Amino acid sequence: MSWLKSGFELSFRIRPVGLALAALYAFACWGARHFSVDQFFLPAGIRVAALLLCPPRLWPYLILGEYAYFAPLRYPMIEEYGISWVILGSACLIPAVALIVHLHRKAMASTSESWLLSVAASAALVASALKLGLSHVLWPVPPSMPFYTNAALFVLGDYIAILTVAPLALLWLRRRGGYDWSTWRLRPTITALSALCALSILIATAGARDDAARAILQLLMTLPVIALTCIHGWRGAAVGVPLMNIILSVTMPSTGLPGSFDQTTFFTQQIIAITGTTLLALGSRITHHYHQRAPTTVQLQEPKTVVFSRSAHLASEMDLRERALGLRRVADDIEAALDETLKLLRTHGQEGPAIDLLRTFSSRSRKFRELTSMVYPTELEHAGLYVALQAGGLSEAWEETHRVVRPVLQGDPCQLSMGLQLAAYRVLAESMSLLLKEERGQIQLRARCGHVGQHKGILITASLLDRTSTLSSRTVDLAIERLSARTQAYSGTVSCLDNRIRMVMRDTHYEMQGDSAPPRVDAPIDMPVKY
């Protein structure tokens, strides 16, 4: 509790890009509000889309941007509604929605996009509950409209707005995920988009005079969107559903004020919300099953040389594994012989020589096993890459140099294939060895496991701790020469930037297949590996 006397210090860094992001977010919400009504409130969709597009380290700037958006709108309302509502009502929304998005982070890593519906529903419910709850509690005079009517209006408006903007944000996030575009998709896609445009024109002209005709035309818009979903999977739904919602909003009779309400469109929106939810869920399942059954573009275009290189590396690992097993057996035999020798010495009263022999052999045995683990990391098979790095001989060798600081290891390497983990282990060892020999100063290792597009992968960075240092040209040439083979075998790259070597490796479709993949190194260390 000494900090109570000495105090503590807080520090933070303000990024110019963060301030620009806050201004852009505030301007986007301000502009979207002018095209919104309560039953279609676009800022709710922009809020979720921004949280999906931006990494968590930039979320504080989004919160700042939301405050900047609310400030000119609600400051004049202080006298009418009270300062408590103005502050709390502006401060609670985006942190609550950010928490919802954060809780879905693990689901976002999956190949299915159905988690977006859970985010949309949760965000709409929580945001509407906060808005209505705070207004009923903190306003001097509660709203005149019944609570449940207001709740239905706000929840539906937020939910449809999220389904309008968030799928487009997700489409941008998955833009590099690879898509098997075929020429046969072109004509039906153009036909479906043309049908949507034609229906929007009919709604704007004929529907303006007849509410019944407008409702029928609005419902007919679901047919082209269904076609897009069947043709393109979730990508078709991610384009079709927002287009349908935007057309519905643009053609809705409105006074131009946020409180504007159209009963006919409200009933249609309820049907459209259910339809949009169903289409996004259906598109997600179509895409998921398509990727399971059909070969991916990466698999079809993967050069045979890469496949052969990966197989050669795995075969080499198998050979090293057998050598490590042989060394283990030799060590076990030596330890058994030593036990017999120690028993014999103690039987003849030679306790001193027995203790000296045991002490000497223990240090040699530990060193021998550390070197054996560098031949083949057996810990990797049981506990994963990170444990093998921290518990094997590699960690001891780095510690003896007094130049390697504590590594920063993030993510779960056990989700990666065994072949990729072994390749990453070799790349890590080689890059650190290269920096220790060719460069001066302290060195830090960083590794992060996650998703690269639609594939699981790992990002590795071996860098000099001094950020002002720069790698020599010899180090750069050696790094590219020695590390490229293994990284390219796993669809990766090697790059040298300023003071660091950066490597990306990923599990391709070929590597993750069960029957057609090369032999995996996942048997226990005391069992033979079948080729």
The ordered string of helix (H) and strand (E) elements is HHHHHHHHHHHHHHHHHHHHHEHEEHEEH
Characterize the biggest β-sheet.
5 strands, mixed
Count of runs of 4 or more consecutive helical residues: 24
Query: Percent range for helical residues?
Result: 55-70%
| First-to-last CA distance | 60 Å
Structural class assignment: alpha+beta
What is the average of the pLDDT values? Answer: 79
Radius of gyration: 31 Å
Apparent shape: elongated
The strands making up the biggest β-sheet line up spatially as: 1-2-3-5-4
Low-confidence stretches: 295-301, 509-531
Descriptive report:
There is one protein chain. This protein is an alpha+beta fold and about 525 residues long. The chain has helices at about 5, 15-35, 40-55, 60-75, 80, 85-90, 95-105, 105-110, 115-140, 145-175, 185-205, 210-220, 220-230, 235-250, 265-295, 295-300, 305-345, 350-375, 380-385, 385-390, 395-400, 420-440, 475-490, 510; strands at about 410, 445-450, 455-465, 495, 500-505. The longest helix is centred in the middle third of the chain and has 44 residues, at about 305-345. It is elongated.
